[in-house]
Amino acid sequence: MASSLDDASPPSIDAVTENNLQPFFVLQKGSLRKSERKSSGTGKTRRRIDLSPALPKNSENPEDEKEDENMNLRMEAFEFVWSKIKSTIKDVLRDINTSVFSEIQSWVHQTFDTIRSLGTPDFLEATQSFPVITDANSRKLFTGLVLTKNMEFVDDLMTFDALGKHLKSQGCHVANLSSLDFIAKNGIGGCLRSLLRQFLKSTLDPADISILASWYGEENYKNPVVVIVDDIERCCGSVLSDFILMLSEWVVKIPVILIMGVATTLDTQRNILPSNALQRLCPFEFTLGTPAERMDAVVEAVLVKPCSGFSIGHKVAVFMRNYFVSQDGTLTSFIRALKVLEIGRYGLSPEVMWKHVFNLPSCQRVKMTKQTNESLAHAFSELKRLQNQWRAVVLCLYVTGKGEKVRLLDLFCEAIDPESYNKREFATCTKLEKDSILSPSSRQRPSLAKGRVIFEAIHLVRDLSTGQLGKLLKIWKNLTVGIPEINDKVKELQSLLKIEDGKSSKKDLIITPKRHASRIQLDNEKDSKSLSDKAANLLECMVRDYMQPIECIPFHEIFCFKNVDKLQLALIGDPRRRIQVDLLEFQKLLHCSCCISGSNALLPSMHDTSIMYKLAQEHGDLINLHDWYQSFKSVVLRPSSSKRKSRQSPLPKKRKDINETENQSEASTQARFCRAVTELQITGLLRMPTKRRPDFAQRVAFGL
Amino acid sequence: MDFNDPEEEEFGFSRNYFLAKELGSSGKKSARKLSDINVVDEQELRAAAATIEPKHQKDIEALINSYKSLYPKWVFELRCGFGLLMYGFGSKKPLIEDFASTALTEYSVVVINGYLQSINIKQVIIGLAEILWEQLKLKRRIPSGNLPKVQQPFSSRSMDDLLAFLDGPEMEENDSFICIIVHNIDGPGLRDPETQQYLAQLASCSHIRVVASIDHVNAPLLWDKKMVHTQFNWYWYHVPTFAPYKVEGLFFPMILAHGSSNQSAKTAAIVLQSLTPNAQSVFRILAEHQLSHPDDEGMAIDNLYSVSRERFLVSSQVTLNAHLTEFKDHELVKTRRHPDGQDCLYIPLATEALQKLLSEIG
Questions:
Q1: How many separate domains does chain A show?
Q2: Where is the Origin recognition complex subunit 2 winged-helix domain (chain B) (predicted)?
Q3: CB A331 within 8 Å of CB A320
Q4: pLDDT confidence tier of residue A658, bands split at 50, 70 and 90
């Protein structure tokens, strides 16, 4: 084994330059894992061979080993937690899709029976390598159109994948095709090859559908064949129509059922496919849940409910929300953001964390007097308790507003805002004073400073009928089971409601003269009104007293990810802006002493490309190369004060020397100019002169 | 970036663009020519370019060294399944290779030099498959024990097969992967959509992790959301180095060396010197005509023929045409339509360049 590892010898300088011109090269072959090395007896000698001399790192160093171990532990922890989150998300999404999936599945089996009822090919027909010739009626291709209601097809990749798996588990033969299989360049051969690979697990050239037919005839004739195309809008129309025509010719031999994802409208296929292909389709329609619904389900399962002992700060939540709503729009990226956050948690070494646990700002705020393990344990259990309360209130608000398009993501962002919580606390103090003076009607005004969504949810309660209120209270009761403070109040309301119910039903029984009827009804309404008011007040009170955002609780830093910049940097590189900033404000990164930062003057000591880019800012969209060069030259050759002194007395004797050095400096200035232009070209900030405009380069970026 | 106000930002962009446009067309546009610069000889220029005195060497070194503290984090993120995408001004080649050779010693590392003009992605994938095959054989200790036998050499397999092999089932020890370093994943050799698709598929393979760098400000436009979120799975790192783009810039023409009138006059002279004296003289007639009639569209073919014939340079239209074909092939002469409908010949060189050329061949 060691011999094969030996060829990872240190590259010589020649080899390096040669490697730079190779399209690709092997930098190093993987050595043994450190853990393995340790376990093997001859590890010590082997290690010496493995490590190229260029590496000063020595794994015999105990600190290194500790670090390795630390890393492995962190890795394990991450994998444990992340797989839990991942499976939670998967379950949630599966639950959302369950009904559609089972609908599709039963349709598939029904359709299969229909196709079979048209007749099965006899032995002779089945063994022929051409389609059975039948009437046009039996050349229909049953097609399920799945409306995804989502322009972002990325999210639906998961869905169609899951659909494929679901159908497979129900005994269907399933192939998933993507738009990449339907490109004009590969023609119909591309999708056929993909089909053969997925069904037959082998690739045969040339790809021929008769191979598929014989495969189906041989062993698999009892089950339907399902072909899923995830997004037909991205497929090449002509290839797709060829594919459909071909499948429909063979449908008696291979009972294919097509399932196609559609993002926009269900009649999209009319725009993509020609009429002869359309005629062959026999479409059925299905609809998936909206992205927002899926989003809410994921937020509920991962961020609101306890899933991984992991929570996020308000700013992070707002960033993620805005990123989802106005920038990326995919659940996939949201999940990715969660993963980035999760990794961030393991970036901190736990030892460091524990050392400073009592110095955390949130802890200092409350001025904990005793810094013992018990007080810490107490603080943690308190944190957990408060979190449970918070969770219950958020979920209560969510179920209240669910029907009225209150989005959990928005609600979550508001509920987790420490600022508005602090304000809220303040507001309630003053409000209590005011309440004693003001009439009760003023209570209905929003007492919440910022909570628009929260207020909306509370407001909704006021308009509920008795029946609806009863249902809602029941849900509330279940949600607040672990929190007696709230639970009791909910129960109290429930019993009040029951009494009220009893009263009204009694009233209904009593036969009343007509003229009283309207008044009683009015009374009823009033009663239920006051009840729903009570419920609304309860909810308001819950929000006020029990919904303490995690960032207001001591020691939250341990569980709560607050660094929004870090997340943003990892998730959205912004090369266009940042590369320009690098050039314009390079002093901030290099921290050099020679270029005074903050001053706008161009100094000869600055980075050449930086000087050039700053100069370019003074030009319009076109830069005259001559002018640019001259100004660059004047900047870089500007003598610094010390040089000027020596130049004051030029000796005529050295005329020739000076000429030569001038010539040299001219050449080097030109070379520097060339290099700076090339570097700007590499960054894409500059377009080279064209034949039409040989003396002008073009600026590409305007403003950051 | 201010997320709350994307509209304002967009507005800013367009406003800046039009301001710049206005600035360019407000009459201030300089008419000076590149050829006014006294450009030194190309050889001298290249020699000077090779010996440019580096600035801020220490600061740059310190900056690059400061990234070393991130290495363990990068390894961790790679192991967690992310791809690392490095951007920021300056060559990141030394940085990434240093990272690989100090922090990724346990893994095989393959480098793709995306800044080169042409890269055969299939060759790369074949190479990767071979390395993985070797690695799996080593891991199992028993060569070709549980593993399926290679039915055919990797070089004759299809792309899909190769990718399927690299995307094989996870090992019990699930982070045995090959790390691919792609310098300039936005480079000229990798820029086409097909290659990017293959790279994305490659990046999503279970046995592959990618560390890549980009330099172009618009590089993210190469990828759609599927590629970014589910295949490459980028974790962005802003790591400006300010190191010179030595290798990366190797294939870019030097702006003062190529394409300038100087240069084309020089190549024209070389071409002309290889032609017969008669051909040279025909060219001279054309050049002199152009110099004496600078505002004309060019010289009519009939005119050129009669003058050439007078001077006994050509005997027939056929010989003249032979010369002209030669000129046109080397882009010494072009034709354009005169307003009165005649085809005219002209030399696509500036006046001063043409004078220089005549003096050189004369």
A1: 3
A2: 293-352
A3: no
A4: low
Contacts of A15 in chain B (CB under 8 A): none
CA A375, distance to chain mean position in Å, is 38
Quick check: A56 pLDDT over 50? no
Say whether both A594 and A477 belong to one domain: no
Q: Is B184 left (phi over 0), alpha (psi -120 to 50) or beta?
A: left
A216 CA to centre of own chain: 40
User: Do the chains contact at B244 and A671, CB–CB below 8 Å?
Assistant: no
CA distance B344 to B299: 5
What does the pLDDT average to over A259-277?
A: 84
- Give me the pLDDT at residue B252, please: 83
| CA atoms within 13 Å, Cβ hemisphere of A553 | 26
Give the start-end residues of each E strand in A611-704.
Answer: 622-624, 686-687, 696-699
pLDDT at position A659 over 80: no
Residue B313 CA to residue B165 CA, distance in Å, equals: 69
Residues A258 and A308 in one domain: no
Mean pLDDT of A31-59: 43
Peptide bond into A206 cis (omega under 30): yes
CA angle A357, A358, A363 (to 5 degrees): 105
Answer yes or no: are the C-beta atoms of A405 and A457 closer than 8 Å.
no
Looking at the structure, do residues A552 and A608 belong to the same domain, yes or no?
Answer: no
Give the Cα separation of B90 and A679 in Å (integer): 8
* Residues B310-348: tens digit of each pLDDT: 999 999 999 999 999 888 888 788 888 887 888 888 888
What percent of chain A clears pLDDT 90, i.e. is strictly above it?
15
Query: What integer pLDDT is reported at residue A8 of this predicted model?
Result: 39
Q: Which of A244, A266, A289 is the last residue of a domain?
A: A289
Q: How far is CA B86 from CA A346, A570, A598, B67, B202, in A?
A: 21, 10, 27, 12, 18
CATH fold of B257-361, please? Answer: Arc Repressor Mutant, subunit A (1.10.10)
Indicate whether A283 and A310 sit together in one domain: no
Range in A355-364, A665-674, B85-94 the model is least confident about = A355-364
Q: Is the pLDDT of residue B9 over 70?
A: no
The A residues from 363 to 422 touching B (CB cutoff 8 Å) are none
Residue B7, both tokens: 């509209």
Specify the higher pLDDT residue, A514 or B135.
Answer: B135
Do A71 and B105 lie within an 8 Å CB cutoff? no
**For position A68, what pLDDT does the model report?**
79
Is A627 in the B-facing interface, judged by CB distances under 8 Å?
yes
* Residue A499 lies inside a defined structural domain of this protein: yes
CB contact under 8 A, A674 and B254: yes
CB A51 to CB B105 under 8 A?
A: yes
Query: Residue A696: beta bridge partners?
Result: A624
Residues A259 and A146 in one domain: yes
Q: Which helix (H) or strand (E) holds B86?
A: strand B83-87
pLDDT at A430 over 50: no
State in Å, rounded, how far the first CA of chain B is from the last one. Answer: 62
My answer on whether A593 and A685 are in the same domain is yes
How many alpha carbons fall within 13 Å on the CB side of residue A440? 4
A388 assigned to some structural domain: yes
Q: Cα separation of B27 and B41, whole Å?
A: 33
User: How is domain B57-249 classified at the architecture level of CATH?
Assistant: 3-Layer(aba) Sandwich (3.40)
Query: Do both A228 and A241 map to the same domain?
Result: yes
Identify the domain containing residue A224 by its residue range. Answer: 119-289
